[in-house]
Structures are given as structure tokens and as C-alpha cells.
């Protein structure tokens, strides 16, 4: 669907007549309406407006050019439904974007209808040039009209540009006045320029916030009305309704001087919910002083209408605050200053490189700036990561603002290190940590280092594609209830989950935390968001990030409604007479509510470098911990000191600072594009006759068992943003649309071969994750439309090759028949020496935790272990022995340990390992076999 449902009756309201106006060659126009074509297209709206907008303008240019080439055969335009569809879409879209506005599109429509093609062509060209960023005029500057010259000058202005939404029911005259005021206020010394987008209603304001990522601020004038007069697509209409629905009515003082206060606040809340980065201003006429008291918690400032200049300064200042990159600026400043180095780091200032006969290509390739920026100084403005007080401290504060955290810490050695820092900060030896067994290996290593007792949680398996999903909430609740039943709940300190998983399965952290806190109100949560940093910058994905969930939890626990609901629920959860908890089934069936005094202690670790702009290893830890300043900070500080290099890489830190600026300025645009391009890719695979014969894009139906989904659509974003939104609000798990798992059994080769021999070696296409029969394609904020087109082209070529009977024969001769992948083994158990005690009265009630650290150190002593080859190990297992692993065995993929120290090695583990075809297995030497703890050691 386009920006408008073009087959809606009023969509044809665009004028098709006109007098053509003066100037330009006038030809006979269309006296009748263009033929009604099939007007449905592109359901990605509003996620795809950015693409739709530029495609529509480009199409118009192409159509008019074709008209010229045809020698003026007007019927071409008259009968081209796409021209009229594009104009109708643009009429709505341009209302929500700065630059040309609705009137511009209407004028073009009138010109075309009136046969004035030359003038229409000029206007279309101006729009296209602006979108393409072209700054060179098509004709000599002397031939330009005054309007065109002004437009060109504006385009040539290279200052960064943003857009400001004005919500006000105003007349055409009022709009023109606002625009000319704006031009008058512009000053050559301003660092940025901005355009206004003026919309008359609350619905339009929300539609603009959803579709136009260039907006950085919004000025609300209380004169707006509620309902749009535009004809919106079903998707955009539903998304606008969703946005309004999810906003709670804001409490207003009963003595509000204006009855519009509530509406203004409601709109402000809706916009803040959608786009927290939008800076909100209120511009009012009367009663401004009393309004200021009632409204300022939402608005940065309240202005009077006459204070345009003040507003202008505020807008520029705010943009400057977002733009500010204190650490990057300090590095640049440092690079410019002359300095002598009488300390470490010979490369600094190019010292050991520039004069070298042998490594001159270092500078040639990377450029001198890299070496000028390298320094071991922590003085001046450069600051120390271990005790930041200046620019790094400020950069981290800005990152906390951008990511919605209370504190943010930069990490220069990846999320592998960030995870270890959080584990050490939170957990003491012998405390229990519940952790997804399929989590990244850094958690398992951290658990070993801290001496925690590890209780593995099992994710649901996806045996057909040989990987795991995520851990169902009821399994986590059940395990907590088991610890409570055994009287050991007080030992459980932390729950660690991966959100989202490598394969794109996303939890609902708010629900998980709420329900777990209802059983144990002081639990700490570590959300490994290594792959989810981008999610913060899109209104739908943001809701499932740890930081937003923590904030929402804090707000909810503070309400009277929650306290009342909590008290009611407790009556169902405990026997009123004995006070004993109701049976587990009751606790599992209820959506448990946490006590109002539960503590919110949430940590999120993110590999910024994986999904956003940062040099490799650039990562962050975000903290939302109510106990941070009352004790937890010290432990965190010590852990940070333990794992952080005293020579952190400054370029990584500067890139984190710059990446933060980027997401604050254009994060929404980039993430929207990332999701939309992923949809284009998956749709292309699903629709192309050859591709769909060879490849299958896995959907929620394949990746999430039905019991964890309430909504029905299996590729929600393909049906539009509102469908995705619905699934992301209601389903227990959802799939990140930017991850496309493609099943490749139809190719006859396995994932690893497909990745290396076909994609990389032949076509230079890099993917990371494969399983036996799947390949994971990911779009990210750097993905372009051309890259997606190239991938589709390559897949079509490959599909052709795999379907060519001659090629197939050759293939068969080379490829061994694919082995059947055994199901992924669940975590077997810790050996008795390291496992939890077996309850004498009921051995089946043994809890799953084990002591990784003791097993790890036992396994490191040479005299304690032996190496055993797989066939011998299998013989022992078949004889009823229970060999115990001395170390971690981690195949890549899947990238998590199949064996950990102290774990019993079972036939299932051996089957799985023998069927694995991965090239890289950490902790396993194919010549020597498995490292196994000697029986005598275990029995002693
Ligand atoms: C879920 C998860 N957590 C943590 C990491 C480690 O991140 P980094 O490579 O930034 O150390 C990875 C790496 O792939 C991962 O997939």
C-alpha cells in the first residue's frame, strides 16, 4: 500500500483540471480521469516511506522523460496508472516531509492534467535533484528562475539539515508566514539548518513521526485538531491508532487553565513514546505562565508565539547537543597539536612508521591521521577510561542518554568482556545464576571465573534447522519455583538471557522481568543484547530492549493501579489461611505481578560494533540498577578494573562516541531502512519462481512454536508496520525482521560449503552464521539497496546453477550425501562431584546447578586428566560409564559450549559432535580427542 490507499474513494480528490498558469508550452490536457489501475502496492508502509518517496519522484521523472522521447504522446501519461498513483502517494507523503510540501505536488498534478509538461518536468526535476543530493544545476544558472535559484542555493548549502514538526491548524497564509520567518532567522554562522514540516492534526503529527526520520524536534501549538483529513493506507492508519492507544492519559491538574491541556499532553506523550529523541516544545499564546507549570515535564520549553527567535536558538542548541562528540573532538584536537613523545607507543604521531623504509605502506593505507590520533596520554582532554572525569565521562553520559540507561560504560574488548564485567560485578561465589545454555561462551567463562553455581536453562530446540530458539518464560518461572520449594531461592542472584539471539529470536524483557520479580523481588537481570543495540532506535523494536523494559517496570511499580492489582493477585497465589503458596500450576498460569517494592536491577551488554557504527570490539554496558549508588557501583567499578586494559584503544572509544552521535541524529532513518531492506530481500526470495524453488525463508512459523505466539501472521512486517507492532506487543517471542534465515536444502550443499565456496569465494558475499541446512543473511544500518539487489542477483545465479541438471551431476559426484543432523543435545548434567546435592527423600527433586569453577581447575591439572578419542569414549558410554569433560568444547557454529567442565559426556553429545562439520572447535583437538577427568580423581 502506498502512503494513501489509492483506491479509497477520496483518493481521487487530487485535482485533474487546471488552467495551466502562465509560462511553459501548453498542450491539451486530460479531460477525463486516468484509468483506474490496480492501485495496491508495497505493504511495507510506513516502514518503507523513505523508499517509496524517492521511487515515486524518480518514476515521475522517468515518465516525463519518456514522454519527451516519444515526441509528446500524451496518452502515455494519461494511461500510466503509476504516474497517478505516485502523485497521490506523494501528495500525502510530502505533507510529512520538509522541502516541497503538499501544494508542490498538487501543482505538478495540475500542470500534468493541463498538459503543461515542461513546467511539470522542471518541478519534478527539482524534487529529484534534492532527494539525490545533486548540487549541480541541470542548466546554466542564468537560465534559472528566481524560485529555482533559491532552491539550488538551498541545496548547495552543505550544512547538516534536520526537520522540525509544527503541529498547528493553520491557513496557507499562516504556513507561508512561518516559512518566511524561518528563512529570515537563518544565519550563515549557524552550524545547522532546518526546515519546517507543518501538519494540522494530532493524527498527522503521529504519521509524520512514524514516517519521517529527519525530524529532530516538534513544536506543538494548541490550535491543532485531532483527526487527519488525509486518506492514509490501512497500515499507516493502524499504526497511528496503535501509537495513540499505547499512550496512557497523562494526569493533568484539575484546575488546568485551558481545556486543551489534556490533548496537548496526550499528543506530547504519544510522540515521546514513539520517538524519545524528539525534542518537544510548546508554543502558546494566552496563559503561558500557568501552562508552564502544568506542562513542562514533557516539554523542553514553553514559548510565546512572538518568541520565534528564542525557539530558533533552542532548536539549534539542541541539535548541537546531539552533535557534540566530546571524546572524538578531543582526539582530533590532540592530533593537531605538536607534541614530543617521551613515553610508550612508538607509532604515536607516526614516530616509528613515517621514516621507515619498510613499513611505509602502513601510512599509505591507513593514513597519517590514524597515527596522529594514537596516543598513550591520558592528560589534557584525552581522559582515562579507568577513571574518566572529562571527555570520556561526558561521552558516556551522552551514550546513557541515547540508550535510555542510567549509566553507560564503554568497553573496548567486545561484549565478551562486557559480559564478564557484569557477572563479576553482580555475582559472588556460590550464588546461583540461571543462564540460557545457548548463550555466548563469554557467559560460561564468566560463570567459571566468578565461582557461581550455574543452573542452565534450556531453550526450545529447532531440530529441523539444527539450532536453538529462546527460553520459554514458564521454564524460567518453574525453575525459580523449584528453588523456592527446595528452600534455596535466596541463593539465586541473577538471570542471564540473550536478547535477541544470533538467529533473531527476541524476548519480551518486560514480561520476563515482571514475572520473575514476582517470585524473587531482588533478582538481577543481565540481558546480552550483543545483537540488539540498533533496536533502541525504532519505535517498535525499542519496546523489547532491556533499558526500556526497566524504565517501564519502574514507572508501573509506582502506580496505585499496580499496587491494587498486585494485592488482588496475591490472594489467588497464597492460601488465605495457611499463607502457603498455591500449587505451581497456579503460579505458571497467572501473568505474575511483581511487588511494588521490588528492586529494578537491570544490565544490558551490547556489541555496538555488530549492529551500529563503531570499530570492531566497540561495546557498551548499560545500567539501570536502583541499587547502583547504594553499593553496587563499587563492585561494578572493581569488575571494570579487572577486565579493562590500561591501554584502551582510543580509536574504538572515539568511534563509540561518533556512533552515538549518529544514532541520535539519524538512528531511526537507518534502522527503518535496515528493516525495510530485509523485507525486500525476503519478499524477493519468497516470490521469485527460481528462488522459491531453491531457498526457503524461515518465518515465525518455523522459528517460534505456536504456543509462544498469539498473533497469526508469520512474517508480520511483510504485512505492514502495524502488524509487526501487534506481534511485538503480544507474542512471547518475535523474530527480528532484519535477520533472514534461509533454508538451503534445495541446493544440495551444506551451509558451510554454501557460505565459503559459493557466496564468498565466487561472489565476495560475506555471511557469518550457517547451520547444516541454513544460512543467515542480515541487513544492518550500512546495507544499501544496491547490495540487496546484488545479493538477489547472486542467489538467482546460484539457484540457476543448482537447478541445472548438468551441473547437478557434477555436484553429486563431488558431494557426499548429507548426513542427517542429530537433534541438539540438551545440557546433560553436572557430574555428582560438582552437582547440587541429591535430596534423600526424592532424588528427582535435585536442582540443576553445578560448580563450573572447581571442575575447571580440576581439569587443568595434567595429572587429573586423560585425552580420549571419540570411538573409545563412545565405547565407555555404551558400557554405562559417565565420562566427565575437563574443559569447554565450543564448536563454531553454534558458538556456545556443547560441553563445559564437570559435565557428563553422553551418547547424544558424541552423536552431535560427530555429525558436526564445522571447521573450528575450541577446546577439542582432533588428534588427541576429548579432555576427560580421570575416574580416580572423581572418586577420591
Ligand atoms: C550473543 C552474543 N553475546 C556476546 C558476543 C560477544 O561479542 P563480541 O564479539 O563483541 O565480544 C557474541 C558474539 O558473537 C554474541 O553472539
Automatic annotation (TrEMBL):
Any one GO molecular-function label of the UniProt entry: arginine decarboxylase activity
Compositional bias of kind Basic residues: 24-36
EC annotation from Swiss-Prot or TrEMBL: 4.1.1.19
Name by which UniProt lists this protein: Arginine decarboxylase
Keyword annotations from UniProtKB, A to Z: Lyase
Domain Orn/Lys/Arg decarboxylases family 1 pyridoxal-P attachment site intervals: 325-551, 601-785
GO cellular component entries: cytosol
Region spans: Disordered: 1-46
PANTHER family cross-referenced by the UniProt entry: BIODEGRADATIVE ARGININE DECARBOXYLASE (PTHR45229:SF3), CONSTITUTIVE ORNITHINE DECARBOXYLASE (PTHR45229)
Gene Ontology annotations of biological process type: amino acid metabolic process
